[in-house]
Amino acid sequence: ATKKEITDDDLGFLSLFANQAASAIETAKIYKNLEQINKRLTETRDQLVRHRTLATLGEFSAGIAHELRNPLVSIGGFAKRLQKMLAENTREHKYADIIATEVENLEGILSQILEFVGGTEPDKKTVDITTLIEQVIVLFREDIEKQEIEVETSFEERARYLVVDEIQMRQLFINLIKNAIEAMSEKGGRLTITSTALEEDEGGIGFEISDTGHGIAPEDIERAFEPFFTRKSAGKGLGLSICSRIVEVNHGGRIFIESKKGHGTSILLWFPRSILPK
Fold first, then answer.
1. Nearest to 239, CA basis, from 200, 209, 275
2. What is the pLDDT of residues 235-270, one digit of tens each?
3. Model pTM above 0.85
4. What 8-state DSSP symbol labels residue 4?
5. Is-contact 106 72, C-beta < 8 A?
6. In the chain, what is the greatest distance between 2 CA atoms, to the nearest angstrom?
7. Distance between CA atoms of residues 54 and 60, nearest Å
8. Beta strand 204-211 pairing with 265-271
9. Helix or strand or coil: residue 216?
10. What's the confidence (pLDDT) of residue 43?
11. What is the DSSP string of 65-98?
C-alpha cells in the first residue's frame, strides 16, 4: 500500500474501468445467449424441414403403395395356386416359388412404406419401457451370442413407466438394436442401452443406444434420417426414418446421432415430460 490519496481522477478512472468491465461481461452474456438461440433455431429449422419432407414423401409413397398392393396380391395369389398345381422338384414349381417369395418381399416393402407414412394416431398408454427393451434384447439373443456381443444395460427407475404407444416403442427399439448389432460385424462388440430421467434444461426422459461398431461417416450422419437412404447392401433405408417419425412426430421427442467412423455409434433419444404418467 502506498498510502497515496485517492483523487477524483482515480475514482473517475475506476468508475470508467468498472463500467467497461460490466459492459464486456454483459456483451459476453448476450453473445452466449445468441449462440444458444441460434443453435435452437437451427435445430428447429432442421426439424421442420425433416417433417415437411416426411409429410410430402409420405403422401406420395402412400399413393404408390396402395396402387401397387392390389396387383401384387393377385400375382402372389396366382403364384401360390401354381405352386400347388405343379409337381415339386420341377423347374416350373421352382419358378412359381421364386415369384411367390419375391411378391412377399415386395409386400413387406410396401407395408414398411405405409407404416412409415403413419396413417393412424398413436395409441398411448402407460408402458413398462424397461421390460419392453429387455424383451427386445431377448429377440436378438441368438445374434448376440453368435457375435459374442457384450450387453450392458442401465435403466433408471424414474424412467421406467412412460405413456407411449407400446407397439411403436417396440418397433423403435427393435430397429435401433438391430442396427447396432449389424454394425458390429466383428466378434466381441459391446451394446450399451441406458435410460435416464433428465433434470437440466427442459427435463424429460433420455435413452442412449450405443455400439462399438464401424460407425457412420460424417457426411452420412446428416442424411441418416432421409427415407430410402442406406449404405447397407441389403435393406430399404426406412428404419431410421420410421424411428424419427415415432419419436418426433408421434411422441414429440427428438432423435440424435453421435458417431465416429471406426469407433461406434450412439443414438440419443429425448422425450418430453408429457410422456410421464400423471
1. 209
2. 445 678 888 888 988 899 999 999 888 889 999 999
3. no
4. P
5. yes
6. 115
7. 10
8. antiparallel
9. coil
10. 66
11. HHHHHHHHHHHHHHHHHHHHHSPTTSHHHHHHHH
